[in-house]
Prior knowledge:
There is one protein chain. By secondary structure, the protein is of the alpha+beta class. The chain has helices spanning 13-40, 47-50; strands at residues 63-70, 77-86, 91-98, 103-109, 115-123, 132-139, 141-147, 152-159, 166-175, 177-181. The strands form two sheets. It has a five-stranded antiparallel sheet, with no helix packed on it.
Amino acid sequence: MTPEKVNYPVQSIAALFKATIIALVIAATVLVIAILPAEYNIDPTGLGKKVGLTELAPKQKAVVSKRESKKKTAGSFMSDRVEVVIPAGKGLEYKFHLLKGSPMLYSWNSMGIELYFDFHGEPDGDTTGYFESYTESTASEVKGSFKAPFDGSHGWYWENKTNGPASVVLSTQGQYKVIGLK
């Protein structure tokens, strides 16, 4: 008994190319309409919100990770490095407590993503809402030094006006106590 010869259909290069393009268009459409709203709360079309997909996304709070700290006792020299993730279209503050005259060296980098920022401080015990801005600008990288003009919390407010999360790596050295996210 001899096996039967089976003729499988052969597709042309043009048909394969057309099928590949159609698959890519479908994948991109599903990504934009369903996956981004449901997984990342990024909804460029607005359809994700209308059908409730953005409610499925994990509530994007600022994420602080990879904090490395070397400290001895309060008021002694500190060296910290922290990565702060700022969700799309959101803002947050990261603070330190410094005593009047305490020094701090700092640098932060948002990997090329331009962020609005306000480096400022609030005096201890103030109930009026007073704060003093030291620097207010837009940048993706800042380095500098600081000497606290009063006892209180000092730090940065960053605002991410992009459609995706922004990661800020903040490195500090000086005499302070980490407050963290506010």
